[in-house]
Amino acid sequence: DDDETPDANQSFYDKAYVILFDLPDYIIVSTYLLQTLVYAECFLSSRLHTMDKGAFRRKLMKGYLAFNVVLYGGQMGLYILLFATGENEGFADSLRQLLFVIVTGVNYIAVVITITLYIVLTCKFSGFPFRSIGAERSFAKISWVVLYCQT
């Protein structure tokens, strides 16, 4: 259309645009934390320690599940609010800004969780030797892959 009249569905298009460009951020953050869990499991498997690996794994998985429930539940709630605003563009603009602030905060929290887990694992298991030379080499390879993928 070459006319200057606004499209009747322009508000819907604007909201859908925000969601389509916002959704991958949450997926990437979830994947980032999943990769952190893989690193933690490899760390625990490579060390010869007396701790219950299964209990530690369950804690990590419960934490990951809780993080994803809050992440995607909050995301869906914000998206529903965005579409429920109707023609109230002022509130919709404020909600869009809130979405961007939340994405920034979630990205920051994911990095803090990763760094904290690295420090906790390194300090807690620093006195335990590697299971074997092969386990040490495998862990070194996984560490480089995780470091490369997370930067």
Automatic annotation (TrEMBL):
The chain crosses the membrane at residues 26-44, 65-86, 98-121. It comes from Triparma retinervis. Coiled coil: none annotated. The keyword Transmembrane helix applies. This is THH1/TOM1/TOM3 domain-containing protein. The lineage of its organism: Eukaryota, Sar, Stramenopiles, Ochrophyta, Bolidophyceae. Keywords: Membrane, Transmembrane, Transmembrane helix. Residues 18-150 form the THH1/TOM1/TOM3 domain. It comes from the Eukaryota. The keyword Membrane applies.
